[in-house]
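Quiz preparation item.
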């Protein structure tokens, strides 16, 4: 087996890597003769110029790589979408305990709140007494606890993934303690992002509904289609600009404004790469894949509902009867299947892991 080496660039360690990999890094301008280096089993640092067979006796080029202050370090660039998916599954498997504990932080209050709310709704005409008051207060408190713990969950996913990607073994209590430090920033950004999406979704929808209730015409139909196209465009822009705010806020410790600015910059980077290798499109692919997973998990519930809706619309002759039927169906439908919700929550860290790896990949591509 060839000798393995560790390279240190501005405080960040990369490797271990063999001589062939080091030559590739050298050709890309990522390793210079002046960089610190050591053998995998050696504690003494020397210069990369002393690695046998790596550098000729020529002056090294000016180093253009700016090491970001992120804790993780990758041993090699991930150049394909398939590698990101494969490493996502590998990191999820290695850190399943930590990811599962983080999931419990948010899913436990959610389940308790749904159970308490279901007990109240299941009694039909509920009389306000001590029991129902306590159940309602408990349900509301669990909902608030869910929102309080959600930023910790988001930060924890980033930190666990970063340490596992760097070859470290994260400890849950240490991760939890570090995640608490990021709570104010992540909480504010979470609210800001959700408000932006909600505003640019609900406002166009409200205008479209207003135009529809006012009566259909060529002009109103054109305006509705125009507003719908604008809503799709603006939400797409928001999605791209917000792709990496979690990583910059947690892994790089940027403030709110810098996290949003750097997220937009990284998402729109990669102009010299093929379109399918740019962070923006790879993020779209990852989000689309997660959407398909969610649909697949919920398909046992979705399929009968869709079949019933389509059958009702196809066989009904009175439009008002169709609307009344759909309203009654919505009122009578129960809460989502608890097992499906738990499975979806357990698998949700896969999405966060994939975006952390995509962020690391985009950073290295830019620095190269």
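Solution:
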């Amino acid at each position: 087996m060839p000798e393995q080496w560790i390279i240190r660039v501005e405080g960040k360690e990369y490797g271990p890597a063999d001589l062939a990999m080091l030559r590739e890094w050298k050709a890309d301008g990522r390793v210079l003769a002046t960089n610190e280096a050591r053998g995998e089993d050696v504690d003494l640092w020397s210069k990369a110029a002393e690695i046998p067979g790596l550098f000729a006796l020529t002056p090294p080029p000016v180093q253009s790589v700016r090491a970001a202050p992120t804790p993780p370090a990758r041993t090699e660039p991930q150049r394909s979408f398939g590698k990101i998916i494969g490493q996502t599954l590998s990191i999820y498997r290695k850190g399943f305990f930590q990811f599962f504990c983080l999931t419990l932080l948010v899913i436990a209050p959610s389940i308790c709140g749904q159970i308490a709310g279901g007990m109240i709704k299941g009694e039909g005409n509920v009389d306000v007494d001590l029991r129902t008051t306590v159940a309602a207060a408990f349900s509301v408190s669990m909902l608030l606890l869910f929102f309080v713990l959600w930023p910790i969950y988001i930060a924890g996913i980033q930190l666990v993934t970063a340490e596992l990607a760097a070859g470290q073994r994260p400890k849950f209590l240490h991760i939890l303690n570090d995640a608490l430090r990021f709570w104010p920033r992540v909480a504010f950004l979470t609210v800001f992002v959700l408000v932006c999406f909600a505003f640019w979704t609900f406002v166009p929808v409200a205008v479209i509904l207003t135009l529809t209730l006012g009566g259909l015409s060529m002009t109103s139909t054109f305006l509705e289609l125009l507003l719908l196209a604008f809503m799709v465009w603006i939400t797409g822009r928001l999605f791209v600009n917000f792709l990496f705010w979690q990583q910059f806020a947690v892994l790089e410790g940027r403030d709110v404004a810098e996290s949003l600015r750097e997220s937009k910059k990284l998402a729109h980077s990669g102009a010299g790469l093929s379109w399918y290798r740019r962070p923006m499109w790879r993020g779209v692919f990852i989000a689309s894949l997660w959407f398909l997973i969610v649909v697949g998990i919920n398909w046992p519930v979705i399929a009968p509902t869709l079949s019933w809706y389509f059958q009702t619309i196809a066989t009904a002759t009175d439009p008002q009867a169709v609307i009344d039927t759909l309203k009654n169906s919505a009122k009578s439908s129960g809460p989502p299947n608890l097992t499906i919700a738990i499975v979806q929550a357990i698998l949700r860290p896969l999405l966060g892991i994939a975006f952390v790896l995509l962020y690391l990949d985009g950073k290295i591509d830019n620095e190269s």
